[in-house]
Structures are given as structure tokens and as C-alpha cells.
Design goal:
With 226 residues, this protein is mostly beta strands. The chain contains four helices and ten strands; from the N terminus they run αβαβαββββββββα. A hairpin with a 6-residue loop joins β4 and β5.
């Protein structure tokens, strides 16, 4: 009987498992695959394709991603709930300066429609890494909005974390509208000035829509954690 996260991790050092939704659901309701990946499950039937595509983007979508060494060791004591207890634990600080956007897509295709864009950055990973921060919205400018706002995160298990950029059209009276997104593994992020090329809901490119960001990654020292 597998009763803890560590038990699942140890089981998956030698076994494959496939995770299904509860019961026999055949509808389109989704669940987050990240929790299952964090305990070493290799195959996940979730339809949350942003995370799925983001994870496998690091190997050009060939269908196989090698788990980190601490999840392949048969004697591992790694627990997603207690990442600080594993050998070699090194939390990372991720700072993302969201500078500007370029030719963001319209939500309403009617002539004269204008968007009020904001950027949300979400971290998916072990429980302590789940986080999200967002910029303010820019009124009536989807062509070249400028934010110059910095979003900060602490990543406790970088090897399992995914970073998702999402752009939304702000609406004070109802739910914001999705405009575009891009998801990639934390380990694939490169520091410095970067353009994030946005994808649509179905994962296709929407050129020339992009975000311009400046990314900083550093180890989190004991002093900075206090």
C-alpha cells in the first residue's frame, strides 16, 4: 500500500504507472498533472495541455523526459511535501521583470475593440512551489503595452517546476479573458532579456504576439531566506 509521497517516489524508480481521473469520467473535465509528476508518475491522462506541452517542449515533444536523479534512486527519501529534506536541496530565486508586450491578440475581433492586458506568471511544482503573481493592467493598449514590473518567486524543487506566462484582457465587471500563454520547465529558462512568444488556447503560435522580459535566477542563500 502506497500511503505517502515518498512511497510513490520510491515505487516509480522501478515501475511505470498511468493516472486516470476518478471513476470512469469521459467528459472534458481536467485535473492538474503536476501533483502526479511530483511523485514520479510517468504517464498522465490529464488534458491540461498547457502544462503537458510545456513539460515536453524541452525535448521537442519526443514523448520522454528523464526524471531527475533524486527520483530515480531506489533508496530515495524525497517527499514533495518536504523538499528541504532531500540531499543537495538548493532553493532558487526567480525574478521576472515584465517589461512590455508586442502586438497582443484581440479578444473581440470587432473593429475598434481594444484590450486592457495584464500578465500573470504561475509556478507549478511541489506544493511549496505553487505560486502566482501578476502585473497591473494597461488600459486600451494591446499594441505595445509597457509594465516594467518585477515578479519574484522562490523555487524549492527547480527540477520539477514549470513556469507559465499568461496574458489576459482585464475586465473589472466579469472574469478576465484569455489572450495567450507560454509554459516551459524552470530548468529550460535562460537568464537575461528574452522574448516570450505567445500561444493560443489550442497551443498554436499567434505571431507576432510576444512579451519582452528580463529574467534573473540565483541561489537563495540562508541570509536571504530570513
Amino acid at each position: 500500500m502506497l500511503s505517502s509521497g515518498t512511497d510513490f517516489v520510491q515505487y516509480h524508480t522501478r515501475q511505470l504507472s498511468r493516472i486516470y481521473p476518478a471513476g470512469r469520467r469521459t467528459d472534458s473535465s481536467n485535473y492538474n498533472p503536476q501533483d502526479m509528476w511530483s511523485v514520479g508518475c510517468q504517464i498522465d491522462s490529464s488534458l491540461e495541455m498547457d502544462l503537458n506541452d510545456g513539460l515536453f517542449a524541452q525535448n521537442a515533444g519526443c514523448g520522454y523526459v528523464l526524471k531527475p536523479a533524486f527520483m530515480r534512486d531506489g533508496n530515495t527519501q524525497f517527499s514533495p511535501e518536504k523538499p528541504e529534506e532531500r540531499p543537495g536541496y538548493t532553493p532558487m530565486r526567480l525574478s521576472i521583470q515584465v517589461i512590455s508586450g508586442q502586438q497582443l491578440p484581440k479578444v473581440n475581433q470587432k473593429e475598434g475593440s481594444i484590450v486592457d492586458p495584464l500578465v500573470r506568471v504561475e509556478i507549478y511544482g511541489v506544493p511549496q512551489d505553487q505560486a502566482k503573481e501578476e502585473t497591473s493592467h494597461i488600459n486600451n493598449n494591446g499594441f505595445n503595452p509597457v509594465w516594467n514590473e518585477t515578479l519574484n518567486f522562490v523555487i524549492h524543487t527547480p527540477e520539477l517546476a514549470l513556469v507559465r506566462f499568461e496574458v489576459e484582457d482585464y475586465d473589472k465587471a466579469s472574469r478576465n479573458d484569455f489572450m495567450g500563454q507560454f509554459t516551459l520547465p524552470f530548468t529550460s529558462i535562460q537568464a537575461g532579456y528574452r522574448h516570450i512568444h505567445l500561444l493560443s488556447k489550442d497551443g498554436t503560435a499567434i505571431p507576432p504576439s510576444s512579451l519582452f522580459v528580463n529574467i534573473s535566477i540565483s541561489e537563495l542563500t540562508r541570509r536571504s531566506q530570513i
